[in-house]
Specification:
It contains six helices and six strands, in the order αβαβαβαβαββα. By secondary structure, it is α/β, with parallel strands linked by helices.
């Protein structure tokens, strides 16, 4: 019986695959916002090749764990190279226990995306955008931050 339970939990753990959705246009990003209407949204643009992004990543995972039962949604958007999706991006997400849908940006023109989020954004990462429950951008954060900083900022809008 114990072996059966162990096998069951092992299979459940394996079957939890990381869901990675490719964003092809600004409309895809608008759809994410529409799907999560009424929630505080935190969009985080990052990449595995970006050291500050990698250092900040666990801090954001803690934020997700803390607020996921509230009207809150963390949206990771990877800017990794396409050829690194299977070898770097997906293993990184798995190693960091990301158990929710994340996104990969694959657009020809990033200017539309950058201008949509903030015309002052030059494309630097990590870049985090906090939208309130009425979908209004409340905070643009460029550069690495920690759990306490994010918690304080998010609580303002919950």
């Amino acid at each position: 019986m114990n072996k059966l339970i162990i096998i069951f939990f092992f299979l459940v753990k394996i079957s939890i695959a990381q869901e990675l959705t490719i964003l092809k246009s600004l409309d895809d990003i608008r759809s994410i916002k529409e799907e999560n209407a009424g929630k505080v949204l935190v969009f985080n643009f990052w990449a595995t090749w970006c050291k500050p992004c990698v250092e900040e990543f666990p801090e954001l995972i803690k934020i997700h764990q803390k607020f996921k039962s509230k009207d809150f949604k963390l949206i990771f958007i990877s800017l990794d190279f396409k050829e690194d999706i299977n070898t770097k991006l997906l293993p990184f997400l798995k190693n960091n226990n990301v158990d929710f849908k994340t996104y990969y940006l694959d657009v020809n023109n990033t200017d539309d995306i950058m201008n949509y989020f903030n015309v002052k954004w030059d494309g630097g990462i990590p870049a985090t955008f906090i939208f309130d429950t009425s979908e209004k951008l409340q905070k643009f954060i460029l550069g690495e931050n920690n759990h306490d900083f994010f918690e304080k900022e998010i609580k303002k809008f919950l």
